[in-house]
């Protein structure tokens, strides 16, 4: 068994916020405890991640452009049971072939890793376009040499609160499939597709989303420095193509002594819905028609500095800033300048990461996809 725990204390300033002005908030984000283990030479395995953001950020975290689960320009808290998965893997032919089965509450087979396991503290705008999370899910896997094919059945609705459990009455109304290729342990490519029924409507009264993702990930030592790079492109259509949202994201990081330098570029389309306050929208939506589409272009740069690493623990301060451009796309009555007072904004975060325990806990990767590659806080912070 291996385990981990971590949290981030962060002060974030954003200018402007919705309806204008500047706001600074101090929060504890990403407080997690997780573990995984295996029996019978890995044939039976389990994986769990508990998340306590429902206690530390019940009203969300300042994140310009962020949206989902009724939050807007804030990142919503995740559910307490972020992952509770178990399964079996059965290799044969000397490992050339393999099948696997995973079930529980977790991530269907779609898209990239949970942003919680990546370098920037700021969650990307595309979180709900690039991952599907916290569903009751059953995933089947098949491997031949370097290729893994997965298929998942799950409930389409997103959680309504941190303590919410998947709606088992809707299990099977949505599906996904992913093809992954791993030429080496440090290189990964994936393409995936999903059909998700009415994620914002608990009673399945909304439109179906058709989702597509393609991406690649590299993590290796370059010139003696532990480095990482990832890129992904997603397309989501809704209401039989009436609304189409694109996203491109690329990010990378490298060690320079005790520093971990990172950069992310993102350009993501976001729906604009009626709001009941500056940071919230009705859930479920009062109307399936959106007010418009905005495009968020964001440059994020940061530096993590490890000041103390006793044993398998790490404490590191960080500084992270984002420059943000928001533009209106196509028709619609939503006007960015009217609502934000500007079409350019910035955010600055100062804080401290604390981590303890295992490394390489890639949330959303199960069974046949588990491998040495990983980028969890504390794993690759130092060059020796």
CATH topological fold name = Porin
Task: Report low-confidence residues grouped into runs of 5 or more.
Answer: 372-384
- The amount of helix comes to under 10%
- Summed up, the helix count is 3
Count of distinct structural domains: 1
Please provide the count of β strands: 18
- Beta-strand share of residues: over 45%
- Give the CATH architecture: Beta Barrel
| Silhouette | globular
Structure description:
3% of the residues lie in helices and 56% in strands. It is mainly beta. It has one domain: Porin. The chain is globular and about 65 Å long. Mean pLDDT is 92; it is low at 372-384.
Quick structural overview:
This protein has 384 residues and is mostly beta strands.
Mind sketching the topology for me?
Layout: E1 2-15, E2 23-39, E3 44-51, H1 53-56, E4 61-68, E5 71-75, E6 81-92, E7 97-106, H2 127-130, E8 135-144, E9 147-154, E10 174-184, E11 187-197, E12 208-222, E13 225-238, E14 243-256, E15 259-272, E16 292-305, E17 313-329, H3 336-340, E18 344-357
Which keywords apply here?
384 residues; mainly beta; Porin; 16-stranded antiparallel barrel; two-stranded antiparallel ribbon; 3 helices; disordered C terminus
């Amino acid at each position: 068994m291996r385990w981990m725990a971590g949290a981030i204390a962060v002060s974030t300033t954003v200018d402007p916020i919705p309806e204008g002005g500047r706001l600074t908030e101090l929060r504890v984000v990403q407080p997690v405890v997780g573990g995984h283990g295996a029996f019978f030479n890995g044939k039976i395995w389990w994986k769990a991640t508990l998340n306590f953001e429902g206690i530390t950020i019940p009203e969300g975290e300042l994140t310009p452009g962020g949206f989902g689960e009724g939050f807007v320009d804030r990142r919503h808290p995740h559910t307490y049971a972020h992952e509770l998965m178990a399964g079996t893997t059965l290799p044969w032919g000397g490992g050339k072939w393999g099948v696997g089965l995973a079930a529980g509450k977790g991530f269907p087979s779609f898209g990239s890793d949970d942003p919680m396991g990546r370098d920037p503290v700021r969650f990307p705008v595309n979180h709900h376009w690039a991952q599907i999370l916290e569903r009751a899910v059953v995933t089947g896997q098949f491997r031949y040499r370097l290729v893994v094919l997965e298929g998942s059945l799950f409930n389409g609705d997103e959680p309504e609160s941190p303590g919410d459990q998947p709606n088992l009455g809707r299990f099977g109304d949505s599906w996904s499939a992913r093809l992954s290729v791993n030429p080496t342990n440090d290189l990964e490519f994936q393409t995936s597709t999903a059909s998700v029924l009415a994620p914002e409507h608990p009673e399945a009264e909304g439109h179906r989303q058709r989702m597509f993702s393609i991406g690649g990930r590299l993590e290796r030592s370059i010139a003696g420095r532990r480095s990482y790079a990832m890129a992904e492109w997603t397309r989501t259509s809704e209401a039989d193509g009436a609304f189409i949202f694109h996203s491109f994201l690329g990010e990378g990081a490298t060690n320079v002594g005790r520093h971990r330098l990172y950069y992310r570029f993102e350009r993501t389309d976001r729906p604009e819905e009626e709001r009941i306050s500056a940071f919230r929208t009705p859930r479920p939506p009062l109307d399936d028609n959106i007010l418009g589409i905005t495009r968020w272009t964001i440059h994020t740069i940061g530096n993590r500095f490890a000041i103390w690493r006793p044993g398998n623990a790490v404490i590191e301060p960080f500084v992270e800033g984002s420059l943000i451009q928001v533009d209106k796309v196509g028709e619609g009555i939503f006007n960015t300048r009217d609502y934000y007072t500007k079409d350019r904004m910035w955010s600055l975060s100062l804080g401290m990461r604390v981590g303890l325990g295992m490394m390489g806990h890639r949330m959303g990767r199960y069974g046949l996809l588990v491998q040495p590659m990983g980028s969890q806080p504390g794993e690759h912070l130092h060059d020796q």
